Amino acid sequence: MDYTSIFTLMRAEVTLTAILVFVFLYDLMAGERARRRFSAVVCCLMVVQVVVNLVPAAGGELFGGMFCHTPMDGIVKSMLSVGALIVFLQSDTWLRREDTRHKQGEFYILTLSTLLGMYFMIGAGNFLLFFIGLELASVPMACLVAFDKYKRYSAEAGAKYILCALFSSGLMLYGISFLYGTTGTLYFGDMAARIDGSPLQVMALVFFLSGLGFKISLVPFHLWTADAYQGAPTNVTAYLSVVSKGAAAFVLLTVLVKVFAPMTEQWQTLLWIVTVSSITVANLFAIRQKDLKRFMAFSSISQAGYIMLAVIGGSAIGMTSLVFYVLVYMAANLAVFGVLSAVEQHSGGRVSLEDYNGFSRTNPRLALLMTLALFSLAGIPPFAGFFSKFFVFAAAFSGGFHLLVFIALVNTVVSLYYYLLIVKAMYIMPGDAPIAAFRSDRYTRVSLALCMAGVLLLGIVSAVYDGINAFAFGL
């Protein structure tokens, strides 16, 4: 066995596993003084992880095709690692609280475990490894959602998440069993040659889409989302809304292209319905929300619908558009959650829309950062969100889905209205008891600076999109 090839192709998984073991031992043996540097140590390790992921390496297979690596996989894994790093930076103040500082190690271990599961999902060339990765990503995530277990909403959110996760995993496993029964293999490459669109395989496709639809929060598999986002700690919500969703969307497109290519017409029809439902339903419900975490839950459902435009587009152009959209969405969404988390920690947990009335008068810089991030989510030029939406629209349009693009454009106008509701509250509405002025910690400031760099620069620096495109066409 060539261990050099194993490390080269699985360097992301090997490095992250080593980081997990180190964090576990650090949490077990570090004294009180060393634990004060826990956040700094973990963040430095995550920087190393990102650098390792970005080291160029040719694609290849391991273990008879069970594990596959492509250059695009390395880009996506790096992107997810950056998302986790930003969440860790934003979590420092929260993890230093009296009720959470003794659980700091648990938070890092659970989060890194979910990230490792996503890595295996992305690199899977076999449905067995894919399902193991899915469960490794799901079970620790349920623990994270219920991290504040003594708070009623958090415990309720954890229960809803794990029940829905179990149901969706069962559906997906049932679909995989149909595929195995009709093709006689679990390997993606071998299975694609034996797909013929039989009724059992159509049912398997529906079950598979249902299982990943839960992870991505697509309608009608979204019912857990608002309650889980509201009940989970804000930093966990940020991670769940960005990193988990991005990994699942990338895996969905990969499996559809590799395995279900002979059934393209069927899965495009299913996704057409799901995309329209997700964007429209989420927009209608978002308008009515007063709690900002629930608001961001429906915003994430709507954004998932836009991501599906790239999936429907298929091919390398769709892959490029999807990865770029998730990257931009990650920067903007984490910026919003970074502000929400900072405000929550310094104001005693205020997260309602009314609480942000007059916010620009007391905290003008944070209000400006949040406004720019919301503009990017809404797709307003010249921010990166405008270009990311343009690319996913172009991917769907090039695939012939003109009506779908028109419906998505109409919904973009609706989303602009509810994003501006927050801007209106911060800049126009008078506040009887506005959030007091405060200075966020240095970790949060660094994370917000990274997010703002993404929001402002990703749209105008064409090298980013061109680089992703080059990797996509090299698949």
Tell me what the structure shows.
Belongs to the complex I subunit 2 family. The protein is built from 22 helices and two strands. By secondary structure, it is mostly helical.
The total count of helices amounts to 22
- What's the rounded overall pLDDT mean? 85
What is the ordering of alpha helices and beta strands?
HHHHEEHHHHHHHHHHHHHHHHHH
In the residues, how many domains can be counted?
A: 1
Spans with pLDDT under 50 lasting ≥5 residues?
none
* Order of adjacent strands in the largest pleated sheet: 1-2
The share of residues in helices is over 70%
Rg, please?
21 Å
Sum up the overall morphology in one term.
globular
- How much strand? under 5%
| Biggest pleated sheet | 2 strands, antiparallel
Supply the helix-strand structural class: mainly alpha
Span of the ends, CA to CA? 25 Å
Q: Would you count the extended β strands for me? A: 2
Domain NADH:quinone oxidoreductase/Mrp antiporter transmembrane: 124-414
Organism: Alistipes shahii
Transmembrane segments: 6-26, 38-55, 75-95, 107-122, 128-147, 159-180, 200-224, 236-257, 269-288, 295-317, 323-343, 364-384, 390-420, 446-465
Keywords: Cell membrane, Membrane, NAD, Quinone, Translocase, Transmembrane, Transmembrane helix, Transport
